[in-house]
Sequence to fold (207 residues):
Amino acid sequence: KVKSERRRAREEYKSLLAEVRRLVEERRNLIDELRAVRELMQSKKALYQSLAEEVEIPISVIKRKIEELEWYMQTHILTLEEEKQYISNLQAYSSLLKRALSLMKEREEYLELRALHLSLRSRVAELTNKIGELKKLLSEKKAKIEELKNKLSASLAEYMSAKSLLENKKKELEECDTNITQLTSKLIALRQEYSNILKSIEKEKER
Fold:
């Protein structure tokens, strides 16, 4: 019973150890991913802040200004100089809109990366706790295995002692059997000798 219990405990220990190693590897990969995401976040944040300094006007305002310029150019007769000025203004606002849209895109990507970063941190913390719990179980299993090992050693020592005692008793019994056999032979010989003596005495009387 103790032996099978120890075998089961060892199998459970090996299974737990394999699970701990798997989780540790998963956590290591997540930490590497977390580091990469953090670096990408810093890069996105720097770009986002740089664009934010260039674009202070809301996108809706820029779009409305472009629409106004286009509408004015379509509904008014302009001199060549005025047309050049309006086209220049239109290009400037279009360039500003492009940067504003880039700013919005970079901001959205930054926020997505931040959400991913938080998710990864949460998963790493979860794995760290799980690994800690499993390591505690491993320690308990190891102590249980050691306890069962000691029980087995004690049982084996007790068995060997009993076996040695039985072997000694067996030898004593064998010696007793040998002695009994020898004494039986001597007794038979003595009886024969006694019978012979009686016969000799009877013959002497008959004379």
User: Anything to note?
Assistant: The two ends are 83 Å apart (CA to CA). Helices lie at 2-54, 59-75, 80-206.
